[in-house]
Design a protein that fits this description.
Elements: H1 17-26, H2 33-45, E1 49-50, H3 51-60, H4 67-79, E2 83-86, E3 94-97, E4 102-107, E5 113-117, E6 141-144, H5 147-150
Parallel strand pairs: 4-6
Antiparallel strand pairs: 1-3, 2-3, 4-5
Helix pairs in contact: 2-3, 2-4, 3-4
The protein binds zinc ion (2 copies).
The site of one zinc ion has 7 residues, from β4.
């Protein structure tokens, strides 16, 4: 895969291969080529991608990463806290770079997923008092109709 500058999206700036390797090793995971390739594909493409999307991107780039390797790589990257699963309900599992906490708005008509900054006003959905627990992150899925779908055709 060509070295491409990754965009700093809502998920935050991408890490370098060295930083990704260090984060994997910190979790006792090996920094294998597929893991680094999958992270870079996700960083370069940005947004929310399925394992199939990523396998397709790597194949288009002349890579030879098997789909099962992509799944295994994603699991390791999630374990290392580098990638997170997008909680968007049943269906294809989507992944994105772990960065600043944000929520997702899911259009129930066209299926578009939009990042919503964590500071946005949302109805008080959660009573954050969970006795004895430590909350590390929160992801709220907001559902409705996007601007395009709301517009009369
Ligand atoms: Zn829509
Ligand atoms: Zn997102």
């Amino acid at each position: 895969m060509a070295q491409t500058t990754a965009h700093a999206g809502p998920a935050g700036p991408a890490l370098t291969a060295l930083q990704v390797s260090a984060a994997l090793r910190h979790e006792g995971l090996r920094a294998t080529i597929p893991r680094l390739d999958v992270y870079r594909a996700l960083a370069v493409s940005g947004g929310h991608r399925s394992a199939d999307d990523l396998a397709g991107m790597l194949a288009a780039d002349g890579g030879t990463v098997q789909r099962t390797s992509v799944y295994n790589a994603l699991r390791a990257l999630v374990d290392a806290g580098l990638v997170q699963v997008v909680q968007a309900g049943p269906g294809t599992t989507l992944y994105e770079l772990r960065g600043s906490d944000h929520h997702h708005f899911l259009c129930r008509d066209c299926g578009t997923i939009t990042d919503v900054p964590a500071g946005s006003e949302v109805p008080p959905l959660l009573d954050m008092n969970i006795p004895g627990a430590r909350v590390d992150s929160a992801q709220v899925v907001l559902r409705g109709l996007c601007a395009d779908c709301l517009e009369p055709h």
